[in-house]
Amino acid sequence: FYVDGGPKIPPASSAVVKAALEEYPVSKFDQFKILFQRATHDHILGRLKIQVFMSLFIGFFYGLVFLHVDNKQKNYNVRLSACFMTIIYNGMMCVTQMSTVMPLDKRVVLREYRNGYYSLVSYMCSQILMRLVMQAMATTMWALVFYNMEGLSRGQHDYHFFVFLITVFMLATNGLIYGFMIGCVAVTPQKAQQLQVPLQMPLVIFS
User: Fold this and answer.
1) How many angstroms separate the CA atoms of 166 and 142, rounded?
2) What is the pLDDT at residue 22?
């Protein structure tokens, strides 16, 4: 395969790869634990603070736009717009973020996988779990700000917030997995951005 215009790396024969990957230094569960610890260290130190800050900022900004909208028939379209912006940020932004990061990480993953360090299953499980934990924190911060500023909490029971939070988190989870798929297919972040448009347009039109 090609690495961003670099030299072509000749693929190893199937027999060599199979022989190298039949036995790993440690079990797949141990691989998962080590990879999860590495992902935790990388993401918490590098990306979690930025992601949480952006969630708080965007939640506050959306809250100002839709500040204390009354639950009346005349405000139906305004509340519908608030729901649509929720889909745009928590769904589409997760797709964009994940699909542009994966092509960059894929080069390291393929090299380590071919050297027999770990299996792809262990890597995928550790990455998905870590990103779900990060997204749960960011989504909770966003929902706390937006839910109360927009006025969704007025006249509602306390458990309605958790219904809203779980719904938004499921939306963000779908966006992460969708972006993960695009990032695995795309060779470069630019190609990933090109793939997003035709794949996301039906979701925007029919959502």
Assistant:
1) 12
2) 55
The SS3 call for residue 115 is coil
H or E element that contains 143: helix 120-150
Per the confidence metrics, is the pTM higher than 0.85?
no
Mention every residue, 6+ apart, whose C-beta is less than 8 A from residue 97.
179
d(CA 176, CA 185): 14
**Cβ neighbour number for residue 119 with a 10 Å cutoff:** 17
CA dist 136 and 181 (Å) reads: 20
Helices (H), 6-92: 14-21, 28-43, 49-65, 76-87
Q: Which residues of the chain have pLDDT under 70?
A: 1-23, 44-46, 154-157, 203-207
